[in-house]
Specification:
Arc Repressor Mutant, subunit A, alpha/beta, D-Maltodextrin-Binding Protein, domain 2, ten-stranded mixed β-sheet, sequence-specific DNA binding, 324 residues, DNA-binding transcription factor activity, elongated, two-stranded antiparallel ribbon, 44% helix, 10 helices, WH_DNA-bd_sf
């Protein structure tokens, strides 16, 4: 008949075999030496073998004891490792967020270390993709979307208003100004860089300002604001894009407003979105609170920066061709 191993006895045996002394094993296990000796005796009787040789108050493993020790020490090492993993997972938090690529790279990622420093036990995954989440089929906790908001069936909240203005490198601005000092005339000789997925496009902006489109060279069109902003910084033309995404370049002076005569247009643009059932998830609630705080801080910084650059900010009007 098979003998079911006594795990308690095996644990005592493993500790004695590893430390070499009953007293050391007893101290490690937090029991008396007599209790350890009793467990070893019962184990030898149950298995019908001698596990130790006793000589001069020292214990050495027999061949059977050595075989059992190799098995038990490996088993208990695996168990201790599994316990550590379980405890680590129990004490950690996992969050999966989806975000538009340019926003993830230029706004979210530079701020994530602040969140992780405050929440060191969190594991965070960010999927940077333009595709909206399908919360019914994908394991996404929260979506950070760029758009007009009010997505059907989702809880939505605007966390950041965007600030839109024409921007270019200082050298490109100076070259245009040398050809025509009139603010509207600056664009007559400009090459426009189009961010094709932004909420405010060049044709709408030019219409609002009563400016005829320039006779462009071959158009420059990009589906990522990060690429369009990079090209403007490199002096390839003028981009109409987000001060939210270009904040670092505006602070450094590698990008400048084309002209402070043109007002900066403000409108709701960046949102957190998720099914209503996700709102009360602790991870979603904590991360959302942090995002709100970061959004408020950024809003103050952005307004201060644009004011320092001499820009005036106005909110998009209801009849303005933006968000359509």
């Amino acid at each position: 008949m098979a003998i079911n191993p006594n795990l308690n006895s095996l644990a005592y045996f493993e500790a004695v075999a590893r430390t070499g002394r009953v007293s050391l094993a007893a101290a490690e296990l937090g029991v008396s030496a007599a209790a350890v000796s009793q467990q070893l005796k019962q184990l030898e009787e149950q298995w019908g073998v001698r596990l130790f040789r006793r000589k001069d108050r020292r214990l050495t493993l027999t061949l059977d004891g050595e075989m059992l020790f190799q098995a038990t020490t490996n088993a208990f090492r695996m168990i201790r490792g599994a316990r550590a993993v379980v405890l680590r997972q129990r004490n950690s938090w996992q969050l999966t967020v989806r975000s538009s690529p340019s926003f993830a790279v230029r706004w979210l990622t530079p701020r994530l270390k602040h969140f992780l420093d405050a929440n060191p036990d969190w594991g965070v995954r960010v999927d940077a993709t333009p595709d909206f989440s399908d919360f019914e089929t994908e394991a996404i906790d929260l979506d950070m979307r760029y758009g007009a908001g009010a997505w059907e069936g989702l809880h939505t909240e605007c966390i950041i208003n965007d600030f839109f203005l024409p921007m270019c490198s200082p050298a490109y601005r100076d070259a245009l100004a040398a050809l025509n000092s009139d603010p509207a005339g600056l664009l007559a000789n400009a090459r426009l860089i189009h961010s094709v997925k932004t909420l405010y496009q060049w044709d709408a902006w030019l219409l609002v300002h009563g400016i005829d489109p320039p006779l462009e060279q071959a158009p420059l069109r990009f589906d990522r604001s990060s690429m369009a902003i990079q090209l403007a910084r490199d002096g390839a033309g003028v981009v109409l894009d987000s001060a939210t995404l270009a904040q670092e370049d505006l602070e450094r002076g590698t990008l400048v407003p084309l002209s402070t005569t043109f007002e900066v247009v403000e409108f709701p643009a960046y949102w957190i979105a998720c099914p209503p059932r996700h709102v009360n998830r602790r991870t979603v609630r904590i991360f959302s609170d942090w995002i709100r705080e970061q959004g408020r801080s950024f809003d103050r910084q952005a307004r201060s920066l644009l004011t320092e650059l001499g820009c005036r900010i106005r909110f998009a009007t209801d009849d303005e061709p933006v968000l359509r």
